[in-house]
Amino acid sequence: MLVISLVIGVSAFAADDKKGPRIKKCQDAAGKWHYGDQADEQCAQSKVIELDRQGVKRKEIAAPLTEAELKAHAEKQAEEEKAKKLAAEQRRQDEIMLATYAVEADITLTRDRKLADVDTQIRSSEQTLKSLQNSLKRLQTQAAEEQRGGKPVSAQTTKTIANNEAQIAKHESLIKKMQKDKEAIRVQYDAEVIRFRELKSKQVAAPAAASGTAPAKR
Predict the structure, then answer these.
(1) How far apart are the C-alpha atoms of 111 and 131, rounded to whole Å?
(2) Whole-number Å distance between alpha carbons of 174 and 167
(3) What is the pTM of this model?
(4) CA-to-CA distance for 180 and 122, rounded, in angstroms?
(5) 101-204: CATH topology
(6) Paired sense of beta strands 23-27 and 33-36, if any
(7) How far apart are CA 114 and CA 192, in angstroms?
(8) Helix or strand holding residue 58 (H, E)
(9) In the predicted model, is pLDDT for residue 19 greater than 60?
(10) Domain map of the chain by residue range?
(11) How confident is the model at residue 33 (pLDDT cuts 50, 70, 90)?
């Protein structure tokens, strides 16, 4: 009975030791150690260690993050969130591409059609530009004749010349923009062809990987 009582007493002491009051221990920024129930308040920016009555470490409370660490953590989370959104958008674009184009030739046909549309607009602007340039020459000739007659160039002629020059500048700028648009279309669809090939290659590779066989080489 004495042995049983002793075992029960030791077990109770051990259980009480685990659940009983803890002593907190921490080292502040100056290197000074603090002990006691309120040690964590004295070491607000340090790691806190909880000890039992026997001095055995039972728990460790990590030091709070510094301002720099909090900023770095927030930046990392923002980057991860951005990466997730980009990945989701890429998946959406891939799904649209595969639903839109059955074969690679469909992409090049779409590209060529868009390039042809821009070429049509360029030719139209070039024709308008040529007409405006011819009109400007006539107006300039008229202005020169007025000056040779000893008269100042009329306000109407001056205004018409200014308007004509503005229209010429507008169409020249528009033609340059459309030439850049053509290059952007080529770049866009070249990238789409590359991505389409990658997606189709993955579609072929997936069943082969599942069956444990390599896709046949062409």
Answers:
(1) 31
(2) 10
(3) 0.59
(4) 11
(5) Helix Hairpins (1.10.287)
(6) antiparallel
(7) 14
(8) strand 57-61
(9) no
(10) 17-61, 101-204
(11) confident
